[in-house]
## 1
Amino acid sequence: MPGRTLRKRNRSRIIGATAVAVGASLALAACGSTKDTGSGSAGGGGTGKVGVILPLLTSPFWQSYNDYVPKMATSEGVEALKTVNSNSDPSQQITDINNELNQGVKGLVVAPLDSAAIEAGLDQAERKGVPVVAVDVAPDKGKVAMVVRADNVAYGTKACEYLGQHVTSGKVVQIMGDLASVNGRDRSEAFRTCVKTKYPKLKVLEIPAKWESDTAASKLDTLLNANPDIKGIYMQAGGVYLAPTLQTLKSKGMLRTAGQSGHIAIVSNDGIPQEFDAIRKGEIDATVSQPADAYAKYGMYYIKAAMEGKTFKPGPTDHDSTIVKLPSGILEDQLPAPLVTKDNVDDPKLWGNTVK
């Protein structure tokens, strides 16, 4: 998950409709063991313009996603309009959805800022018969053809396990995201639960930072004043928390590289190039790579399929992920998100090593 501005919140199958389509599009449409469940009229029958709405553009993660969108739209045969930036404002995002619908788009790919607030925009799209694919954040309610997202529970668990293996006891901090977003809730609860069950000698201190860089910096500063013996930090979004965290530690003389006495173990989420550089320098220890490239690719893939009237079922896919049914009944394609450490930080397959 995804980032936020420095001062604002961030803020998340049928294989062929006919026998002819099956033969022509099987390689494109097939996802693992998912099966044809029948087609219906949706969107523009597979054609038409697609609106793409971003949550913000001040995080390196979302900047990278934005750069991938036109490339992936072309590769997936989608006519995507210029992206729209909701600038960390959930109410603006609803307005953006309405504006795109008024322009006559036949499909929408949206990265929700607020899991609950997005329902109003989804309802507008449903009334107009326009399918929607949600990227990064799952809505609490509302109709979407698919959520393209990594397993955010796994994010929190992986961070916990890494810290637990490198910090035997003492205080660790999790700098949380916005709890109005399912991403913030999933990561926070997963980290908290994992520490409690697997590493009871760790004491978790929490900073609710709402994906805001300045909030993270000021609250971390206050927390470190009261707890100078912190041994580990989990940042739920490197795109907005990396720079302020490192700067705060540096200002207090607490930024020591891995291997040095007093080094604070730090795990992040995002997989941006800046995190990789920090890992190489020994400033942080690990991050979970959130797949910006795959978010763009499969956002386009699923919106095209939805516009063609295709539907999907839970199960493994042909791209190393699994489609699951959420408690809300919404389907989510949970894309792989690997843990990156000094051992694999130079892997050329990581998207963070393919952008500048």
## 2
Amino acid sequence: MSASARASVWRDLIRKPFFWGIVAIVALLALNVLKDPTYLAISINPNNGNLVGNLVDILRQAAPIMMIAIGMSLVIATGGIDLSVGSLMAVAGAVSMEFLAAAGDSGSVGVALAAVGLALLVTAILGAVNGILVAYVGLQPFIATLVLMLAGRGIAKVITGGQNTAASSDPFRWIANGFVIGIPVVFILAVAIVLVVAWVVRRSALGLMIEAIGINPKASRMAGIKPKGLLLTTYVLSGILAGIAGVMSVGSVMTVDISRTGYQLELDAILAVVIGGASLAGGKFSLSGAFVGALLIATLDKTVLFLGVSSSATPAFKAIVIVAICLLQSERVRSWFQRRKKAQTPSPRVEIVKEAAV
């Protein structure tokens, strides 16, 4: 490959928003390595043969964020937003834990699958409520999903009777804590779901229709697209993915904490989508970018804990990192730096004039 071709590939890569997310992940890991040179070490647990290490913890922690970020990407692409995903995680956790506690069979795979299925059914229905309010009633997505964001935890409290419900189920716990060939099951499941969703929306016209709605709903309707049905579908899908994230979260501890499960994860999902290059104005989404954004959020959370950043300063630390990434992604900011660099570099003609004057 010629030098010009390599330069062209490099320029194209820099223009991809998720590239800077990868750079940020590498930078955060390097920062952790400076504090502890063994930070990236991965070992094998002699008792069960599973991989253990900080990187494995990051992959496990990123899985729920990936789920809600993928759903959020599709919703934002339509020009909407879903603020209820964190509350739906709590609802999914409440439904599954209450079902398992009532069933009492801790070793039954069928009971565990039934708990997962019931949790996803409930969150799909609640996602459909969001979709109906947005598509058919005509409420602003911010308002419609804010209502369920506030009401969702109330629904979870009603389901659990206001208590933090715990249950016992080895198959259910395996979803969040199990390993396959040494890799966390929860991460494998998250990657598989991301690949399936990406294949569906990019191998069919669904992705283009979703983006068309976000660009211009009226024009898309005149082109034969039915925006209402697609809007309903995206909010239902977002609800299901939030339910999966809720199952992953409560499965790790087998307890649902109504006030903490999924708390403020809707903000992490939005940040992951933005880091991935999606436009909050709608009409554009990148599932691979959201995937990288979720990994970055998980890495950032792990770094904050590892560096011992105080809880009061954590939001500021995360904000600084995210703002820096967004500035690096900005074409306008990069153009400004390029103009400054050119302005400070003397042209060959100026050098010739200087030499002649001497």
